[in-house]
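2024-03-11 09:14:02 DEBUG pipeline.ingest accepted 1 chain
2024-03-11 09:14:02 DEBUG pipeline.ingest length=758
2024-03-11 09:14:03 DEBUG pipeline.predict start
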Amino acid sequence: MSMSGWTLRFAARCMALLLSALVMTAAAFDIEESTIDGLHKAIRSGETSCYAATLAYIERARAYNGVCTALVTADGASIADASGTLRARSKLVFPTQTVKAASILPDLDRFKGKVEYGHMQATLSEPGAQQQYGMVVGIPGSNQVSALSTLNLRGERSTTCPAECDTPPSRGALPASCPRACESLRAQPDALETARSLDARYGRKPDLAKMPMYCVSFSFKDVYDTRDMRSTGGADVAYAMDVPRADSTVVSELRSKGAIILAKANLAEYNGGAGDPGGDAKAATKSFGAGARSTWGGTSCNPFDPTRETGGSSAGSAASVGANLVACSICEETGGSCRQPAWRNGVTGLVTTKGLIGYGGAIGADPYLDRAGINCRSVRDTAQVLDALKSPRRGYFDPRDIYSALPSGTASDTPYADATKPSKKAKPLAGMRIGIVREYMVKHSANDVAISDAINDEIKRVLGDELGATLVESYDPKYPDDPKIANMPYNFQHALAEVLPPLMPELLAKKDKQGKPVFTLPGYDLSSRDYMVKAAEGRAPWPENLNLRSINDSDSSYAFSYHFAQYLMRRADDRVIDWASLNANASYYVETRKAAMKNWENKIDIVSLGNTQDIKMREVGRLAVLKVLRQNDITVFVNPTTTVPAARIGYASQPAVNSRPVGRFPTSANLGIPEITVPAGFNSTVYEPSFALKADNSDYESVANETQASTSAQPMPIGLSFWAGPGDEAVILKVAAAYENATHHRKAPPLLPKLAKK
């Protein structure tokens, strides 16, 4: 052997011994509930290594990231054994027991339609792997979450490039049987190899100034392109190459800051799929039941109770953080898809001013509304990630995202993490005025009461009494006035009366599907100029149902048709190049999704009132919100992220009522303004909704339960939201951090305990 060869082998052996020693020192460090600062401290002290921390997350994924749903069948009979793709080195194993549909859908014998019962089916992407199709239901006691759809591990990170096509180049040439595109993938280290490399290069002395996300394990909602992992928006699509050529902007920034790109987070496919635009394609069957789901990843389940939904569409982002499968995740929201899963899974969720975080290289549902968000277990971690997303060259501007061309001064000049530092004052929020948004606390049903009351107590006791903020409340006729809290002298009704008539007068003349006026006042013609002038000047009453909730209702937009066609063009796959080739190479978990995607393919004319309404409403809404903020000298607004408990997977969801949605209020999304939700405790009181067959037996509808309360098997998280005007990220982070430090409501899911040390 030559001296150079001996030297290389000796060096390799020394490195192996060093890595082994680093792993062995990790026994005292727990990644469960760890923070970014805590991880860095442990690495610097030698308490853990990057490899050990990364491996610990993978081990938790192996333990808790399995299948958590069972099929809903006609007879409830058992099915044959079935297995799926690899996740964390283990094949998915599907349950053989099923649930009888009649136990969920009453009067099924009278239903005139055809149910799409649950069934197993081979995926197109990996024919040897099966997945659940049709109706499913959560499994009690499964203690699994199905939050991560793909892990960045060789042999499972791509179906185009299976294990034999994803060996490191150092092990020899690419086999002739493998697609040539695999050459670029196998040159990319996987998560564990990256961790080893970081340990070898930096040991206990990483440069945290240059790499503030050093060894922080992330999942990314599977709408963000990753150059080293399958990226399909959660869909079962047989791309010629399922790994795109380049990272999305958020992935690239975090990778450059030392992050471990660990996994793709499961989701409601294509950010919820933007609904069905209507068209000739019709599904022959119907399926029913709550839950965030994708064809490739399956259904995600709540880490606090696997029978309950995670919320969507960023289901796996929040669930993976809540279950301690990753440190943080990058989510996405169009109407509330970051915030809704965040509160349901007991984690922090931040969405910023539209455009502050670049969205280049990602699949969206509506470009005007889509924005990236951050899920972490603490407010400080969330702020640190936001800081890390700032490019040292471009700042927050992203050349691939036109919405990121924001006015100077929108982004903070100082690190956002500075806003989360604990205050030394006895009353950290003294001098601040916090506006309680009563429009979002109305008890529309029995199922709204428990969370509304719990949040009301948190606001008054913690924000007011303990932290010293001055509280003022807005007005809603359906919520009782609190005599101990001052009313806003100028509220949202006043602002809407001032801004809607000159900028969006058509809203006052809006009609429902039956042609009847939506907003009425006895003795007034709301569509007339004279009424509008009087209302704006406070000389005529304002309709009670034209409020902060109802202004968020708008017509459909067809932007998804345009945006996804653009994404496919930019991705430049050799097989899937447009809508037609996408649908020709895809399967969908239910027939209704297949029909919807076909209708999107045929939606060539993308002109719609929805876009115009969204653009006008953002201007109107921002003006109203800012006027209320400034005229009342309010620092931030506060309200429950929602008041409705999480539904059971596969069962009915709580019906929307009085413009109150189920999972989140979409105001900040529609207006493009920052909002953060933080854990605010737990709730066990639920009025479970149910399905009821319509009178003509043609369909099922969700029906609220107003009389029979039940106690959920596990206490479920609730969330408190803080929001303000454009560019106010620092102030909402400051208030949220003060609340978090005073309460520490974030808890690890009891059903997913720490793993025994190996």
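2024-03-11 09:14:41 DEBUG pipeline.report Residues 1-26 have pLDDT under 50 and may be disordered.
2024-03-11 09:14:41 DEBUG pipeline.predict end
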